[in-house]
């Protein structure tokens, strides 16, 4: 591999940005394509699919064969609130291939006894996120019902372009949340990205069922990045 190409690829990986190493199987030349780069035609369509699925593959385009070596950052879930939903969500998220972290300043809830070896931060979200900032491969789930805890990370997630932003609460609760976020300088278009009430509509009632609904919605958001959605299904 060309040292310059390798340097570019490693820089994207360190920055937690998605990239694909495209190798022309005819002449061996390779290049790095970043998610969002404009690539026309059949190759562009194959790249879009590879970015969404995360699967490396061979593609035929313009009479040539290419190997698409996909490098996606490990998807991360930041759950705000050491609540029962988070307790159920953590093991399921790990099985599905997500890194997950729990943040809650309420030390009565944020205890190792309740979360085992899950990364747990018993501090205010703004303090934790200053050290571990959000990015486009992070999903943010606000689960405390407390605006003093939830509002800051929700605003931070929208500004960071997180691939998923969800918040627990009724429509009335969310209406008040919208007013606060608008006052904080967020646009209505940004706020409209929040999934609220959080999770797919599966008539969930228990914390474990809500966790299933949340994880399903996060997976859908990850795999449909950049696609328009209609009725909850990728267009």
Please render the helix and strand layout as text.
Blueprint: H1 3-14, E1 19-24, E2 30-34, H2 41-53, E3 57-61, E4 64-71, E5 76-80, H3 84-95, E6 99-103, H4 112-115, E7 120-121, H5 125-131, E8 138-142, H6 147-160, E9 164-167, H7 171-183, H8 188-191, H9 207-223, E10 229-230, E11 233-234
Describe the overall structure:
It is built from 9 helices and 11 strands. With 235 residues, it is of the alpha/beta class. It has 2 domains: 3-71, no CATH class; 76-229, Rossmann fold (3-Layer(aba) Sandwich), CATH 3.40.50. The strands form 3 sheets. A 5-stranded parallel β-sheet has the order 7-6-5-8-9, with helices on both faces. Strand 5 (76-80), helix 3 (84-95) and strand 6 (99-103) form a beta-alpha-beta unit. Helix 3 (84-95) crosses helix 9 (207-223). It is elongated, with a radius of gyration of 20 Å.
